[in-house]
Structures are given as C-alpha cells and as structure tokens.
Amino acid sequence: MDRFEGFPDTEGKFWKALTKNNERAWFQKHKEEFEEGWNKPMKLLLGEVREKIDSAYDHADLDDPKVFRIYRDVRFAKDKSPYKTNIGGLIPLKRTGKKITDLPMALYFHVGAGEIFAAAGHYMMEPESLARFRKAVAEEKTGKELEKILKALAKKGFTVESHDSYARVPKGFDANHPRAEHLRRKGLHVSFPEVPKKLLTTRELPKWLAKQCAVATDLVEWLVFATA
C-alpha cells in the first residue's frame, strides 16, 4: 500500500517554474513531474491524515479527502493563466445535500511556490448555513461555547480568521452584541501554527498535521452542529 513519503523539495521549485511558464505547452511537458511529485503525494497525505484523526471526531463523520484540480476557471477572470500555482486539498465533514464549499473542514492544506498553509473550520458559508451560524453565535449557551473554544485555540498558536466579513452587524442582531465580531463573519476558520518547512519532504508531515487537526476538533464539531 502506497503511503506519503514527502514532496520533492521544501522550496516548491516546480511551482516557481510554473509561475514563470504558466502555459499549456510547458505544463504538458512537465505534467508527470506534477502528478508524481505533487498530486499523488497530496492524495496520500490527506488520506493518511484522515485515518489518523478519524477517532478524534466523536460527534461527526469525516468524508473522503478531496484534492483540487490544478486547472483554473478562467471564464470570468481577467487573469487567463490556465494553471494554479499551488496544490490544495481538504478533508470535509459529511453533510447530505451540501456543496463541498459549504462544509466545515477538518483540514485544508495547500503548498506552492514558497507558501505552505493549513487550516480547519468553515471557510465560506452559504446563506442558510450563515443564518444558522449567526443564531448559534448570538445565543448565550452556544455563543459562549464558541468563545471558549476560540480562546483555547489562540493560546495554542492558532489564528482565528474569516475569508470575509460584513462591515456591520447584520439586521436582526444587536450592533453592540458582545460577539458582534463573529456575527459579522461570512465564515470562520483557524489557521494552524506555521508548518515547519523541513517536514514537507518527510514522513513526519502527516503526523504533524494530524496533531494540529486534533486540537481543532472542538471548533469543527461546533461548526457542524451550528450550521446543520
């Protein structure tokens, strides 16, 4: 059985070259380098992490990992470069009838030209999920549970973030609510402490990511039930 043995290097040399040669002819010539050096290892990495963290989820089920396609959707973009300059994937939580972009994630991980990023949470909520999230934030019991979880994560080096937020507290909620910051959010996730670059080429990366994922379990499970 194949297992993750590491990515080719710690500097993302393939991605730096792709950034300079973002065109089909170059990519086709180097496609095997992408598949064997980055795409296949990413699939193995996420599969291993999923196995390691499955037992940490007592109240939710993990779905199969997903690795995103390298091809960019350029239909409505000014930048017509055909390829992404990083590879990313996630381990989502199971949810019937939900788009994968509207699911809490046990892990999101990407690596590219000089960049490594890992996070867990709910990146971008659809309107119905967002409405339920706000209700849970506003309610005293569930709102305080969230505050406690986020405070504990911050102490362990995690950073609380959102991909976007509203300038004002949405209608129907007190503008001076003690959790107004969270009510303005369009999503909620925590980025992990900085991933040690040296781990990229080693068998230790799945273990390190699994350890951080386990720490973030309480937040992810809170989000699962808050937005269900």
List keywords for this structure.
single chain, 228 residues, alpha+beta, six-stranded antiparallel β-sheet, 8 helices, 6 strands
SSE succession: HHHEEEEHHEHEHH
Mean pLDDT over the full residue set = 95
Number of distinct helices:
8
Strand content: 5-15%
Helix content: 25-40%
Rg, Å, rounded: 19 Å
Low-pLDDT residue intervals, each spanning 5 or more residues: none
Strand order of the largest sheet: 1-2-3-4-6-5
What would you say this structure looks like, in words?
By secondary structure, the chain is α+β, with helices and mostly antiparallel strands. The protein is 40% helix and 14% strand. α3 (31-53) crosses α7 (204-215). The chain starts with 12 loop residues before the first helix and ends with a helix. The relative contact order is 0.17.
What's the short version?
By secondary structure, the chain is α+β, with helices and mostly antiparallel strands.
SSE topology sketch:
Layout: H1 13-20, H2 24-29, H3 31-53, E1 66-67, E2 86-92, E3 105-112, E4 116-122, H4 127-138, H5 140-155, E5 159-161, H6 180-183, E6 188-191, H7 204-215, H8 217-226
Antiparallel strand pairs: 1-2, 2-3, 3-4, 4-6, 5-6
Helix pairs in contact: 3-7, 5-8
